[in-house]
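User: I'm putting together notes for a lab meeting next week and I want to include a structural view of one of the chains we've been expressing. I don't have a solved structure, so I'd like a prediction I can at least talk through. The sequence is below, exactly as it appears in our construct file.
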Amino acid sequence: VEVNGAPDVLALNLRETLQQVQVIEFEDFQSGLPRLRALATDAAQAVGYYTANFRFSKVNDRQLRIDVVPDTPVKVTSQQILITGEGEKDRAYLRLQKNPDLAVGDTFNHAEYEKTKSRIQTLATERGYFDGRYITHDVQVTLPPKTADIVLAYETGERYAFGNVIYKNSDPILVGDEAVLIAK
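Assistant: Thanks for the context. Below is the predicted structure for the 184-residue chain, given as structure tokens.
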């Protein structure tokens, strides 16, 4: 797949996405164009180019050329990451809220949005908020003016904790210094 006229992030995503088109689909190029257009549109939107235009050319039986007019990408204009529950004051969540994968002003990228969502859930698991759940995970893309407004609201619930730990062993020498076994 040869891509012309696209920024690097868009060109890479188009090449990666369109590599799934099989050579046999090139036999009747005209009937395959709707699928090519749909794949290209999805690939462009995934990296923020919601109004890109494409012109497809069959170079030969194994090569496709796409001429792209990318247009202006969608920009993140607002982002709310709300954490409620016991995790609301957790330093790890506070750091994530200050440093999400997308910032206001960035080109909207679905993978980066999903990465932030995943980080929130990973923190819940790592930090013991096993009943955590999303209340809202929403992106509003508005065309025009090519803006994205993100809202992620996560309820952590209660933080689980270990109760008293009892070490049982018939040979005290194997247990050794109990202070070594207690995590701090």
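A couple of points you could mention at the meeting. The longest helix spans residues 29-46. Helices lie at 8-18, 29-46, 91-98, 110-127, 172-175, 178-181.

User: Perfect, that's what I needed.
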